[in-house]
Design brief:
Layout (H helix, E strand, L loop, with lengths): L10 H19 L4 E5 L5 E4 L11 E3 L1 H7 L13 H14 L4 H12 L19 H6 L7 H8 L2 H18 L4 H10 L1 H6 L8 H17 L4
Antiparallel strand pairs: 1-2, 1-3
Helix pairs in contact: 1-10, 3-4, 3-7, 4-10, 7-8, 8-10
């Protein structure tokens, strides 16, 4: 069995297939003898039976590896510190661009754990981990670079920017949420370079898995 997130059809059908695929992905990854391999065109394959003959460089995901690589517990957002402080902000930002609140919340949880003051090693800022260059691209202005950084700590502005970026990525990739989520992490250029597939970066693969896993658990969040 393998999973590479193929989607087509109506938005309702795509959502149904997405939820089913993520559930299958989690079920496969939870088994003790799971393998992972990236094929020559960059598609990630997972399975729990014999690896295919063409597979080269198979990674086996045993119990110890799973503890390090896969999300073990996915609590509801209400149990995560900081969620209630930003819930209304995320709801308003999602509504502004007609985005599913559960998806936006899943990205925010993965990016910053709902911390508006979070700063990454690469300089991404705030609730949705927005880079200053992205803010400029979306029309945010400030007289100095420091002033721009300070503006991005505003959770309302930050959530709005994150929602706009994510919404644009969903449209760009034809409602293929797995690619939109991968692009939020690795950049749309990386997704395009790999033929509109999830780039075979460990960080991005795990990021997509976590965001979509949270999304399936939080589906229907209001």
């Amino acid at each position: 069995m393998f999973v590479n997130f193929p989607f087509s059809g109506s938005p309702h059908e795509r959502r149904r297939l997405l939820l089913a695929s993520v559930a299958g992905f989690m079920s496969i990854a939870a088994r003790a003898h799971t393998w992972k391999v990236v094929d020559p065109v960059g598609t990630v394959h997972l399975g729990n039976q014999q690896a295919p003959e063409w597979a080269d460089g198979v990674t086996w995901l045993g119990p110890e590896a799973r503890e390090k690589r896969l999300p073990q517990q996915l609590p509801p957002p209400q149990k995560l510190p900081g969620y209630y402080a930003v819930r209304d902000i995320l709801r308003a930002a999602a509504a502004m661009v007609a985005l599913d609140l559960a998806l936006l919340a899943a990205v925010a949880a993965t990016e910053s754990a709902f911390n508006p003051m979070a700063v990454s090693r690469k300089g991404a800022i705030g609730l949705m981990q927005i880079m200053p260059s992205t803010a400029i691209r979306y029309g945010v202005v400030a007289s100095t670079a420091q002033g721009l950084r300070e503006r991005l700590f505003d959770p309302v502005l930050n959530a709005q920017l994150g929602a706009r970026v994510l919404s644009d990525l969903v449209r760009r990739f034809g409602d293929r949420l797995e690619l939109a989520v991968a692009a939020y992490n690795a950049g749309e250029g990386a997704v395009e370079r790999y033929g509109r597939r999830i780039p075979p970066y460990t960080e991005t693969e795990q990021y997509v898995l976590k965001v979509l896993s949270l999304y399936i658990r939080w589906h229907g969040l209001a």
